[in-house]
């Protein structure tokens, strides 16, 4: 018997590990763009799912942001069908966003994937992000100065509020490996023109910044950035457990919102205090605070001089007696 090409073996193994907890006979949705990453993921899923009777459904999201996008989506669907995977193509509208077109397209894509998974009663959605994508995410987070949460990058496993699993089996796999998988499997890939469009910050990080870092600092930069994300994520998970235990004692429900003890916030170290504030607001109102907003709220506990309410995304914060009260707006 001929030996299995290393790229094929590596990606199949990554998928096998990722779907180990998916029940036999369940369904999974694979996000499929038609590029090498998602095609390698889909092909590996088709192979690994077969022995466990797991239903694999590919979902191709057409953002309609470039000419020929419908044709590209149709071609991705045909490739899925050739792999023995039932395919769904869905067109979405991408609304304008203050966070830019990339974020708006991502939000629309994830909402569509979530809807398809719900319709199909799937146990998980699988995404084809690679180690290179992780490195780019960490680098962009570092450039924005957006803190440890951003530097954690993308989680390999995430459960959303509706208990849907989002899996990224290829976060330890290099992008070149997915191309090698497709070449070894005679799968023709589609190269998204947006992946070479330098208007996008991620493309500039990929094609300009990372190559310079590799050239000037030596090889292994992408792997180092991915390791950093993994270590920060481990630290954050432990930290979050501590915070949840603390919150139980210092948080109370208030009319149209939630309140936190001023004394307890002031007594905690700044890192813990700021994290509590962000977690309370995110849990209650579903919004994230910037560092500036977080520090302004913290001043209600640590530097109180009678300042008035602070307007935040989706809520406001004010000090009332010995508590900071967050109220929906």
Automatic annotation (TrEMBL):
Q: Tell me the keywords, alphabetical order.
A: ATP-binding, Coiled coil, Cytoplasm, Ligase, Nucleotide-binding, tRNA processing
- Compartment(s): Cytoplasm
Q: Where is the signal peptide?
A: none
Q: Which Gene3D superfamilies match?
A: 1.20.59.20, HUPs
Give the enzyme class. ligase
- Domain tRNA(Ile)-lysidine synthase substrate-binding residue range list: 261-324
| Pfam families membership | ATP_bind_3, TilS
The main place the protein resides is cytoplasm
The role this protein plays is: Ligates lysine onto the cytidine present at position 34 of the AUA codon-specific tRNA(Ile) that contains the anticodon CAU, in an ATP-dependent manner. Cytidine is converted to lysidine, thus changing the amino acid specificity of the tRNA from methionine to isoleucine.
Q: Which family does it belong to?
A: Belongs to the tRNA(Ile)-lysidine synthase family.
State the name under which the record lists this protein: tRNA(Ile)-lysidine synthase
Give the organism the record lists: Microbacterium bandirmense
């Amino acid at each position: 018997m001929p030996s299995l090409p290393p790229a094929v073996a590596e990606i199949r193994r990554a998928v096998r590990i990722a779907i180990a907890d998916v029940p036999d006979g369940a369904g999974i949705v694979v996000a499929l763009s038609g590029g090498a990453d998602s095609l390698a993921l889909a092909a590996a899923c088709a192979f690994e799912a077969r022995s466990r009777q797991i239903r694999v459904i590919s979902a191709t999201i057409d953002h309609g942001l470039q000419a020929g996008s419908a044709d590209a989506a149709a071609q991705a669907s045909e490739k899925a069908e050739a792999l023995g995977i039932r395919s769904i193509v869905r067109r979405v509208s991408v609304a304008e966003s203050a966070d830019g077109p990339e974020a708006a397209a991502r939000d629309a894509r994830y909402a569509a994937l979530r809807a398809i998974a719900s319709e199909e009663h799937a146990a998980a959605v699988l995404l084809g992000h690679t180690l290179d994508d992780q490195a780019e995410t960490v680098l962009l987070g570092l450039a924005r100065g957006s803190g440890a949460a951003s530097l954690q990058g993308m989680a390999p496993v995430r459960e959303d509020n509706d208990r849907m699993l989002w899996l990224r089996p290829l976060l330890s796999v290099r992008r070149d490996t997915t191309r090698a998988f497709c070449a070894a499997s005679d799968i023709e890939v589609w190269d998204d023109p947006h992946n070479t469009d330098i208007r996008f910050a991620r493309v500039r990080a990929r094609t300009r910044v990372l190559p310079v870092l590799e050239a000037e600092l030596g090889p292994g930069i992408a792997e180092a950035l991915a390791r950093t994300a993994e270590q920060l994520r481990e630290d954050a998970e432990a930290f979050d457990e501590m915070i949840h235990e603390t919150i139980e004692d210092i948080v109370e429900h208030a009319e149209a919102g939630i309140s936190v003890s001023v004394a307890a916030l002031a007594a905690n170290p700044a890192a813990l205090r700021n994290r509590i504030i962000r977690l309370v607001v995110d849990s209650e109102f579903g919004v994230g605070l910037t560092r500036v907003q977080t520090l302004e709220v913290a001043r209600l506990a640590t530097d109180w001089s009678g300042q008035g309410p602070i307007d935040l995304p989706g809520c406001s914060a004010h000090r009332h007696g010995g508590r900071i009260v967050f109220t929906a707006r």
